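Supplementary Methods, section 5.1.

A reviewer requested that the exact input to the structure prediction be made available. We therefore reproduce it here, unchanged from the version used in the analyses.
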Amino acid sequence: MVEIVMKFKIIILVLSVMIETVFALYPDELAIIVNRDSSDSKAVAEKYCELRKVPNVNIIEVSIPAEDDKFPVEITQDVFTEKIWKAVNKSIVEKGLKNLHGWIYSVDMPTTIKTSPQVSITGLTYVRNELPADHVIKGGQYRSPYYGGPLQSGRLLEPKSFSFSMKGKSASDRPLLSMMLGYIGERGNSVDEVYESLERGVQGDSTYPNGDVYFVTNSDVRTTCRLWQVEGATKVLDKVGLKSVVCAELPNETCGDVLGIWVGRASMNTDSGCKYLPGSMVDNLTSFGGRFQTKGQTKLSDWLRAGATLACGTVTEPYAIWQKFPTSYFWYFYKGGCKSIEAFYQATYCPLQQLFVGDPMVSPWGGKARIKIVLEKKGDECEATYVFENEDETSVFKSAVWFLDGKEISRGKKAIIDLQKHTKQLHYLTVHLPTFGFVDLGCYDMMKIENEPGN
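The structure derived from this sequence is encoded token-by-token as follows.
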């Protein structure tokens, strides 16, 4: 029996929530990692930064050269350490980006790390390049510190923003959220399909959709190993106002709008004619959904091509171990206002072999308020403030936090920037306007500031 642990904690924690500053995941807290040897990798990263207002200073280049005209899908952990882990961390220090909570990989990056057993690049990043013992990975015994439950019996925790869940932990003790924007190698998507999926993510924000979540059940072990989740999930989703359908086949053109599909089959026709809503997610439990170097089985890229916004799959044989896949409670965390990347990791007990793909920032139940930075130049200084572009009477906001090139510079309604103290020609000013609560439904904006010659 699944128990939602929520109401009795609210009274105890409400005072600490009001006092402590807890933030959601904001776009300027992501490092966007690109392969400098691929023009497509750079283009997709720049497109994503444009869509989500991620400062271009957050784009970090690494070099993973092509081999026989193909970018490698697999690399060793030693190569990851030298060419990605150390290189990215060095660049972060050089750029002074002190407020990063996620590493997001662009296209033409490896997906698989050749450990024993193998893990995904996002999984290795999540544990900060420090893997547990081999038998722990193989058995799905690693429990993510961000996992929100449930087990086959026990408690289901309330949705929480990443920073709230990790409060009290030092930066080095926190996992590092990680996703991939897309995969365009063999059996992957085209660049245009990646762009379309990322655009669907932006379109899905704060839409409060009325679509259905489909739990497709059958006698396949890929389904039965986690069938215990369905009854509890449907009840929980009903309580939070989400419709779910338990069925034997994929939804088709006669069905309602699709917010999600939860299924377990090796291969199927993903072009079923159904209408995916922006922000939709498909999770198919099969061995090689994220293993593009192996023929056979439906790939996560097939779901994205069909119209889903998000998809996931394992990069190696996971066996029928439910802990290695998102639970059917993904949509519960999603409905709570969490970003897609937060929902993925709260719903996945052992994410080490999973490859999560799509827009990490999509939030269909996020806050509706929008703000815009207004800048006034006064001599050598700039005074920045923000204005609301629309109203959201349901949110109570905390004090704004201002950042320049990733460094906090001010708190409050305004920020003063002395351009004489900054020698670079181009700067990125961002503002976070957080809300109270377990899940931050706050606002964000970014503005480029050009430092005129002579300042």
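The longest strand covers residues 276-284. These observations are discussed further in the main text.
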